[in-house]
Prior knowledge:
The complex is a heterodimer of chains A (556) and B (357).
Chain A: H1 4-31, H2 43-49, H3 52-85, H4 91-103, H5 106-117, H6 123-132, H7 144-167, H8 172-180, H9 185-214, H10 217-223, H11 231-238, H12 245-271, H13 293-320, H14 337-345, H15 349-379, H16 386-394, H17 401-413, H18 423-448, H19 451-459, H20 464-492, H21 496-501, H22 509-519, H23 522-547
Helix pairs in contact in A: 1-12, 1-16, 1-17, 2-12, 3-7, 3-9, 3-11, 3-13, 4-7, 4-13, 5-7, 5-10, 5-13, 5-23, 7-9, 7-10, 8-9, 9-12, 11-12, 12-17, 13-23, 14-23, 15-16, 15-18, 15-20, 17-18, 18-20, 19-20, 20-23, 22-23
Chain B: E1 4-13, E2 16-26, E3 31-35, H1 42-50, E4 57-62, E5 65-69, E6 72-73, E7 81-84, H2 96-106, H3 111-124, H4 140-152, E8 158-162, H5 170-187, E9 190-195, H6 198-204, E10 207-212, E11 215-220, H7 222-227, H8 232-237, E12 242-249, E13 252-254, E14 259-261, E15 274-280, E16 285-288, E17 300-310, E18 315-321, E19 328-332, E20 343-348, E21 353-355
Parallel strand pairs in B: 3-9, 3-10, 7-8, 8-9
Antiparallel strand pairs in B: 1-2, 1-4, 4-5, 5-6, 10-11, 12-13, 12-15, 13-14, 15-21, 16-20, 17-18, 17-20, 18-19
Magnesium ion (MG) is lined by residues 42-43, 163 of chain B.
Amino acid sequence: MIEPATLIWVALIVVLLFLVAGPMLKLLAVSFERLGSGTFTFNNYLQAYGRARYLEALGNSLVLGVASSALAVLFAVPMAWAVSRTDMPGKALVWFVVMGAFVVPPYLGAIGWILLAGPNSGVINTVWHWISGTDSALVNIYSFPGLAFVIALHSFPLIFIFVKSALDLVSSEMEDAANILGAGTAAATRKITLPLVWPSILGGIILVFLETVALFGTPAIIGIPARINVVTTQLWQFFEYPVRVEVAAAYAMPLLLITMALIGSQKLMLARKGYVSQTGKGGERRPIRLGAWRWALFGWCGLVGALAVAMPLLVLLQASFAKAWGRGLSFDNLTLNNYTFLIFRHEMALISIWNTLWYSAAAATLAVLIALLVAYIVNRRLVPFGGVLSFLAMAPFVIPGIVMAIGFYAAYAAPPVALYGTAAILILAFTARFLPIAFASSTAALRAVHPEMEEAARILGSGRLRTIAQITAPLVRKSLIGGWLIVFIVASRELSAAIFLVGPKTRTMAVLLYDLSEAGNFEQLAAFGGILLTITMVLVGIGMKLAGRDFMLRRM
Amino acid sequence: MSRLRLRGLTKTFGATTVVDGVDLTLEEGEFVSLLGPSGCGKTTTLRMIAGFVAPTAGSIEMDGQELSSPAGVVPPERRRMSMIFQSYAIWPNMTVAENVAFGLKLRKLPADELRQRVREILGIVQMGHLAERYPAELSGGQQQRVALARAIVVKPSVLLLDEPLSNLDANLREEMRFEIRRLHDEFRFTTVYVTHDQAEAMATSDRIAVMHAGRIEQLDVPHLLYTRPRTRFVAGFIGRTNLLQARLEGGEVGFTGFAFNAAQIGIAAEGAPRDVLFSVRPQGMCLHNVPPADASQRPMLAADVIGRTYLGECWDYMVAPRGSALQLRVAAPPLQVHDVGESVWLEFDPRQMALVG
Ligand SMILES: Nc1ncnc2c1ncn2[C@@H]1O[C@H](COP(=O)(O)OP(=O)(O)OP(=O)(O)O)[C@@H](O)[C@H]1O
Ligand SMILES: [Mg+2]
């Protein structure tokens, strides 16, 4: 007799192979195949790395990754230390800054910074002209440092969260022990506290580095006009007519390998728990008294907050209600036209909003459903080799979104599957891409439900399915809603995977925003960004209400 | 017909045998404890009885019907049993009353009767006034009572408990021990109780099965387990004891440095000479300042007090029989005071000398 659990297991394997293994294997195969012929070749790799321009893009990506993670450390570590260890005032503000930087999609932040620091009419430069009386530019966002800076402003929360949670585990006694031996506060912090959290800082750096090299939106919006080519924008160019998937596949391989290697080493590093977590229990924690320095730290947090969240959002807000954003704040420059045009007259805007909402909802539902089943089966050891299932469910974590998208394109766009231009290919790609998020939250939720909770119901006469419905489901509902919302939110703003897979009728808001940015109409662009942000905010609000204040921050 | 019968019950995980040929029979209404050190397979045995784990070999029968064997396992929900878990497993999203009513609902009781039974049982476990509370608002002991009520309200054919008291503090544990026995005396459910705490097992059980490395070493009523352990493991695991090596030869029992007549201590010493091991509890000996009149008929010898500790309930003397390297612990009542260095007469109670190997 075949057990139902076995059937579900087999079905899940098939689904996961289709979602995860299929695209990746196809990508690998295509990269070694003479297009459409089925014969083996290295030619694609020769093409992909045969031009200085392509190699330079690869180098640019790496340097950009290093630069923006260094900047992100600079932004985040003092903030994390201040919030976790000191008596700095206004810690709630830091929380808003971090949440804000998380919630604003990176490409919107990039557009905000174009309005702020564009070389000619950017707000900062305009103010500078007015102060200095010259017409030279003070700052230019269309530059390599500008690009790194904007990316770091978006990604520093990753490091902040890593480092803060590590610092939260260091007991004050660690520092006291150094103090008693004669080290002052500064020395104790430098010699004891920071080394203790160093693995977390490094872990955060790796994540920011990886996010940077896999990022498409910001490099496309800022880098392309500045003639800075990186891996992701180069991949995009391989997709311009005539589409050269096989070269793109070959070109994407280093990105994939770097990601896998770094995530692997990060796991190894954080696995050396000896460092922090064992000191977590007991030890009392007292905030360090900073005296006047606390205002300096507060100023730093405020500055990062202004740069990352307040300034770009304000300038976008202004632009979205302006006839011409460069004319600044004045009554006769105010208009609602940008919004009304998008909503009532633009041919794609409403469709893309609708697409975004339902693709994201469908992907979130699928991802949570698959993830929950896998997590349940693995967690309750219902089948042998459950590890295979969880490996497949977690694998997309080491696949950059853009690589996954190219894999989906290679595997399923053309016949026989023929999903090109359909909603399905986007939904499936989003599902696969965000499966690890859903899986992590499902696993955490199920771990919190002691198996004895279920067994208590079984022994009283309730079958397995009834037990899941009446006992398990109500207990995990809250965290599942949290997981669903996170997947929805990240899917609704996903650009790098979407841009390779959309057809003329299946554009999403993120893709349309990118289209608008290419057209250069910043007022409409800002208004559309405002709509996207509003939708996100509403969802984040719902999530906080249902799943707790920090539900977004727990996604790692 | 006995209620529950385990025959040669065996479970292996990979290469390790965790439960090894357990035979156990429970009569209707009997309360049996599985007692043993951590990792000896108690929980695994209990979970096989409940149907959560399939046996590798052997079988489980209830009322003559086979429930588990390597060929197939009746799932837990169809065994009409109840179980109390170490974690209590009270569902946090349901009130106390809803928790208790869960099993009754599955049995499709009419609403009136259901409410009546829930009220009744909550009264019995003294939780009536907290029926509408949620578990998070209860203390550990109260949660334990809810778990008890939830398990017995369905009138199970067998009640299973897995270290139900191990999460409570010492006082509460003692109180709940008596509570569990009181409920058993009231309802007489056939009960299997897993614990590694011997006092708990002694206070609650009709019989105790001492487990060691997956096997039942001895199955006996509590006081015999204490006074007549049958294996060295049981002697050492239950209470404190003195282990004495001896040689049976020609009607004599030769210990190190002294010997007794075999008949005197009730041992059959026929056959070839052989080495044996005795377990003698500290309470199985007594000390005299002068030998009693009929001393020669009793197993008795001269000894020296070489150490002592006052434990409140009794003295714990360390005594060395003269001419022997042995050191024995002997318990004596608080008013029987001997100084270190004093010469005494040490008498053995033959009924409390257990042959353990
Ligand atoms: N699913 C399993 N897979 C592998 N080994 C197991 C499994 N379940 C139990 N074991 C092993 O079987 C042995 C006995 O476990 P069991 O839980 O029955 O012990 P126990 O007597 O209840 O101990 P404790 O008093 O610590 O609860 C242990 O060594 C345990 O590691
Ligand atoms: Mg156990």
